[in-house]
Specification:
The protein has 6 helices and 10 strands. 45% of the residues are buried. With 181 residues, it is of the alpha/beta class. The strands form 2 sheets. Strands 3-4-5-6-7-8-9-10 form an 8-stranded parallel β-barrel.
C-alpha cells in the first residue's frame, strides 16, 4: 500500500500532521508512530519553527519516519527533510512530495505541482478545523475516484476509520489527534 516518490523511497501509509497546540506532546506522538510513518511539519507561525523542524527531523531519522515541511522548501532542505508539503492553493516547488486539497480542483493542482500523495480533507469533523464542512465518506470516495494521483484521508481520521476508507479509494491517512494522546 506504499507509494513511491521521485527519490524512490516508499511513501508512508500513516502520517502525523503537526500542530502547535500539541505542545510538548508532539515528541511523544512522533515516538508512538509506527516505524516508517510520515510527518507533515506544519507549525505555521510558530516562534521557533526552525527549531521544531530540526528536532522533528532528528526524531524522524531515529524512528525511520519521512519528514516533509509544509510550505517551506528552504527549511525542508536545511533540516534534511524528504521534501515539501504544499498547502491547498500553495505555490508549487520542485521539492513537492505531498499536498493538501479540499476538492477536485485541489487534487488537480496537487498533481500538476508534482505531488505524489494528496491529503483530501476534512473527511470527518475535526478539532483542528471545527468550522470546516466535512466531506463525509461518500463524497471523499467520489472526489478521490479517478483522481490520477494517490489520495490520503485527513480530518477526524484514526486507524479504524482508515480501514473503512480503503474501499473508497484512500491509499494513506493522516491525523493530528489520533497521535496526540
Amino acid at each position: 500500500m506504499r507509494r513511491r516518490h521521485s527519490r524512490q523511497k516508499p511513501l508512508p501509509e500513516t502520517w502525523l500532521f503537526t500542530d502547535p497546540r500539541m505542545g510538548e506532546a508532539l515528541w511523544d506522538a512522533i515516538r508512538r508512530l509506527p516505524r516508517g510513518s510520515g510527518i507533515v511539519l506544519r507549525h505555521y507561525g510558530a516562534a521557533d519553527r526552525a527549531g521544531v523542524a530540526q528536532r522533528a527531523a532528528k526524531l524522524a531519522r531515529r524512528y525511520g519516519h519521512m519528514l516533509v515541511v509544509a510550505g517551506n522548501a528552504r527549511l525542508a532542505r536545511a533540516v534534511g527533510a524528504a521534501g515539501v508539503h504544499m498547502p491547498d492553493g500553495g505555490r508549487p516547488t520542485r521539492d513537492v512530495i505531498t499536498a493538501a486539497s479540499h476538492d477536485r480542483p485541489g487534487l488537480v493542482r496537487a498533481q500538476r505541482a508534482g505531488a505524489k500523495l494528496v491529503f483530501l480533507s476534512p473527511v470527518f469533523p475535526t478539532r483542528s478545523h471545527p468550522a470546516a464542512r466535512a466531506l463525509g465518506a461518500v463524497r471523499f470516495g467520489l472526489t478521490a475516484r479517478g483522481a490520477g494521483i494517490a489520495v490520503a484521508a485527513l480530518g477526524g481520521m484514526n486507524r479504524k476509520r482508515y480501514v473503512r476508507m480503503l474501499a473508497l479509494g484512500a491509499e494513506a491517512w493522516g491525523a493530528i489527534d489520533a497521535w496526540n494522546s
